[in-house]
Structure formats: C-alpha cells, structure tokens
Automatic annotation (TrEMBL):
InterPro entries: Integral_membrane_YccS, Integral_membrane_YCCS_YHJK, Memb_transporter_dom, YccS_N. PANTHER family: INNER MEMBRANE PROTEIN YCCS (PTHR30509:SF8), P-HYDROXYBENZOIC ACID EFFLUX PUMP SUBUNIT-RELATED (PTHR30509). This is Putative membrane protein (TIGR01666 family). It is a multi-pass membrane protein. Belongs to the YccS/YhfK family. It comes from Chromohalobacter marismortui. It is found in: Cell membrane.
Amino acid sequence: MLPTSLTQPLRRLWTLESFAYSLRVFIALAGVMALCWYLDDMGKLIPLFLGIIASALAETDDTWQGRLQALLVTLVCFAVAALSVELTFAHPVIFAVGLGVSSFGMTMLGAVGQRYATIATATLILAIYTMISLEQHGGVALGALWREPMLLVSGAAWYGAISVVWSALFSRHPLKLSLAHVFRELGVYLRLKSMLFEPLRGLDIEQQRLALAQQNGRVVAALNQSKEMIFRRLEGQRGGRKLNRYLRLYFIAQDIHERASSSHYPYGALAEAFFHHDILFRAQRLLDQQGRACKALSRALLLDRPFDHGPSAQALEDFNASLNNLHAQGRDEWRDLLRSLAALGDNLATLEDKLASADNPDARADHEDSSLFDRSPRGLRDVAERLQAHVSLTSPVFRHALRLSVTLVVGYGVLHWIHPTQGYWILLTSVFVCRPNFGATRRFLRQRIQGTVLGLVAGWALITLFPTEPIQALIAVAAGVAFFATRAHHYTLATAAITLMVLCCFNQVGDGFGLIWPRLFDTLLGAAIAGLAVLLILPDWQGRGLHRQAAATLEASAAYLRAILDQYARGKRDDLAYRLARRNAHNADAALSTTLGNVLLEPGHFRKDADVGLRFLVHSHTLLSYLSALGAHRGAAGAAGDDNEAVTALADDVAETLERVARQLAAGETIAPGEDTLTRQAGLLEASAAEETCDERRLLQTQLALICRQLVAVSEAATRLSTQASRE
C-alpha cells in the first residue's frame, strides 16, 4: 500500500482530463525512443514520432471495440496517404492536383460527423508529415519506397494499440470525467444565476444575463459531450449497472439544468418590492450553495467519495422560513409576487431533490424513457445524403474545404517557387491555422506564431545547454507529452512544446540549429497564406449570418414551447421528443453565443452587428429562461384546464408569433412588431392569473404573460438585426 501523501496527488492527477491522454502519449513516445536507442538507429525516430502524433490526433472517444474499428480505418487511410505522397512526390503537377483534391474531399467528410472529421484531418496531417520526412531524407529512394509509410504507420499502430488496450481497461473513466465536467459547469451557472438576486437597485441585469447566456453555452457543450459518450457505450451494452448509473446521472444533470435556467419573475421588480427584507438574500444564498453542491458532486464523482449537500439543504430551509414570514404579513400588494416566489421555492426545492438523488442515482425510476437521440449516420446512403446536402456555396463546410484545398495548393506552389529549406512546414502551418471562420483563424494564427517563437527560443537554449543526445531525447519526449496536455486549452504552449520536440528530434539525426530559421520563416509564410485565404476565398463572415442564427434560436424556442404545451395537455413525461425539443432550444442558444464570440473577432465592418446581436442574445436567453420555468413545472394532464380554452389559444398564438418572427428574421424581412397584441395578451393572462386558485394553472398563465412581454423586447431586437441584414 502506498502512503496517503503519495496516493492523494496520484488520485488528483487521475481526475485531470488531459492526464490519461498525456500518459498514453508518454508511453508511446518513450517506447519508440528506447527502441531507437537500443537498435542504435535514430534515423527511424522522426517518422515513428510523427506517426504517433498523427494517430493521437485521430483518436476519438469510444469503447475498445469501436476504437479498434476506428484504428483499422485510420491505419488504412494513413497507409494510402503516405504511399500516395511517396508515389507522386517527384511529380509536382500530379502532386498538386492530388493534394488539392484529397484535402477538399477529406475536409468535406466533416459534414458526416465529428469522428469522420477527426480521422480525415489526422490523415491530411500525416500526409504532410510524410512530405517533411521525405524532404529530410532528400526525396524517395527507389529501393526504399515502403520505408517512410511503414515507419509512419508503425508509429500510428503502436499508439493505436496502447489506446485500444487503455480503453478496454478504463472504459468508464472518460465518462466519469465528462459527467464531473457537466456538474462543474452547472455549479458555475448556478452561482452566476444567484447574482441576479443581488438585492440592489439599479443592478446591471443585462450584463449579468449576458454572462449567464455565455455560461449556458458551456453547460450545453458539456451535456452534449456526455450524451455522445454515453450513447457510444450504450450501443449493444444496455443493461450494465455502472453504465445505467451514469445514464441516470446525465438525466439528473438535464433536470437540474432546466430548473437552473428557469426564471419566474423580472428580478428588478422583486428587488424593488423586497428591498428591505431578506428573501432575495436567502434566494441568492440558496442558489450559491446549490452551485457549490454541484461542484462538490463533481469532485465526489472524480474521487469516488460520498456527496454531502447539507449546506444547500439548510439554505433551502432558511429560504422557506423567510417566505413563510412574508406570507404571514398578509400584504395584498405582495400577493402576486409571493406566488412567483413560492413557484421559485418549489423549483429550487425540486432542484435540491435532484441534487440529493445524485448521491444514489440508481433510485431513479426505471420506467422513465431513457432513450437517446442518435445523430450518427445510418449507413452509406445517409453519409451520401449528408455530403450532398453540403455541396453548395452556402455551406460553411464546403467553403472551408474549398478554402483549405486552395491554401495548400498555393502553399505548395510558393514552396517550389522560392525553394526554402524544410519548406513543407508551410503546409503544416496552413493546415493548423486555416479554420472555418475568420475569428478562429485569427486566434490560431496569433497563437501559432507566438508558440513557434517561444518554442524556437526554448529549443535553442535547451540544445545549447544540454548538448548530450540522451538528455535531448528526454526533452523531446517531455515536449511531445506537453503538446497533448495543453493543446485543447493552451494552444500557444502546445505549439511551443511541439516546436521544441521537433528541434530535439532533428538534432538527434542532424543539425537542430539549422532548423530554427527555416521553421520560423515557414510558420510566418504558412500563417500568412492561410490568413489571406480566409480573407479572400469565400470568406465566411459570421456577422452576415447572425440574423439567420438568431432566427434559428427563436424557431427552436417555438418548438420547445409547443412541446411544453403538449406536456401540459397530456401530462408530464420526460420522453425523447420533449427532451430533444428542450436540448435543441439550448443548443441553438449556445450556437448563437458562439457565433457572437466569433463576430467580435472579425474586422470592424463585419462586427457592427455585434452589439445588436448581444442584446438579442440577452433577450432570447431570458425568453428561454421563462420557457424553462414552464417546462420545470409540468405536472398532471390538463394543467391549462379543460374549461380554459382561451389560455390554450393564447399559448398557440405566442408560439405562432415566435415562428413568424423567426421566419421574417431569417429572410431579412421587415418584422411586424405586434407590440399591442402581445401587451394585450399579457394583460389578459395576468388578469386571469390574479383570479386563479389553482397554482399550476396560475403559473402557466403567469409564465405565458412573461413570455408575451419578453417577446416585445425580442421582436424589437430582431427588427434591428433584420434591418442590419437587409442593408448588407
């Protein structure tokens, strides 16, 4: 048994998302380095290292069986790519045509699915690695046609074998990390939400709602990642106790998200009415404690420890005591506000129950619908249909594929024009820098150049200070591991690490110092070509399509509202149709937030819609919060009341208004304001809610009234977006 002082740090390392990935890379690189030293043949080191890196870049999450299948496909693709480069390397015209066609085709595979996109991109990178390796050897020797492809594919197969074995031994570990990430992001969301209850007059609610909308995008991304991981493991394995436990935790996280994103009343009105009371402080503290409980749950999942939500349970009791005190005062002017606060209390109490159930998710009812929506292609026909749907200049995937293929062909032409030393790094830089939109390209371009300069300086210093080959070999392995440990979140450091690794590896077989200036020159040239391509070749300015993404958000919200109304008519059931409508609404909201983030990185002319878009995001996310409250309080069938057809008709009108505004916004047409109608509908609903005795029907009417009033603000923001779009 290891001492506690040693096991605790090791357990914490095991909980880091990049640790297992980096450890696999370390085993692969160290094994190859040891083999080359043992055989006294360092000439094989560079292609073996490059094969390992390409294979690690092609890795996707899956079961060991799925990963084995993906590995076999990857190795075939790698072998074909490497051999194709070998056979055409000495024929520039044929090589250029093949480079353009293959890069276009492989990029288009991104339209089929993320797994296909990952393997295709890694194959393209391996093809360029083959060029680099051949250039380093001075071309293709007639008697050694198979040498480079065999070494590259061997390195890839070695890492792939480690990956498959690792997946078989630790198949549930990535899923545990993913679910822990979900609850951690939910914790941040809840703590941000608690700030809306700050009992201050004149609080900048819009800025806080914007931060909340952006965090919602992170929660949605984490949920989507977990869902895909669970689905891959469920295929052919349904019934496993451990896997079903993770599935239930995922559904608990979805329920918490719906309740956390709910809004029951304008916070400014609550702060004004209860400024001299502690109810808002109690609500704020309760949400903050529930956010901390989500973070504690995340940590408990990672470390296999018991989960304690005692502080949040106590905060709920304090909130209820404060609410009961306000009810006891019996003030008529507070009646409607207290009803909304009571609905908030019910919502947070249910959220607390969900948190408590996360400690024992196996107690969740087995009869509930636990099916997940499969977004992967179903056969070759589905693949062909997805590809055909993107063969259009309006498709971002098609435009990026065309842009990248032209970028690589131009880079290849420039390479032959100026004949630089180690010129194929130009193509590699272009592949990593050229992204589907200007914002991402600009970010990666800057980080790539900064990281390269940092890595070259560090490499020059280290190979000067440590001229012995064994130490440089250790530095190369450590740098390769650092690349994979940092590439997801710190691309500048990752680029510096991979540059350092390249210098140390090349110094094992030649002169690493001679690579410093060519690597810097090629990086600058490749980045410039990629940057110009994104600017000039079918530029995909996110600002120009902002109104369409905003329209998609409203359309998804309308579908979510109709799914909620159907539940109110037929009774609560968390079936696939309802969960899919809810997830699509949040996905659209997250996509709008991501699009706006890219718009803010675009040149000034295309960024002019950003302020209008941010305001629209605030209003649309608030609308989604009111919808989430409706969804969170679904109950028995007939909540709208069999004798209350007027409420149902008004709800249908609201959904139709949302759909109409979405259509007009997508087309860039003038949006009919409908302010008078919406205000009148809100008044009717509020009057009906004031007389309602049934809490469930009253909440339905109150939330629909809030949605009507919010639609006025949404329509105004949509009008400004549509006006801007029509001027383009």
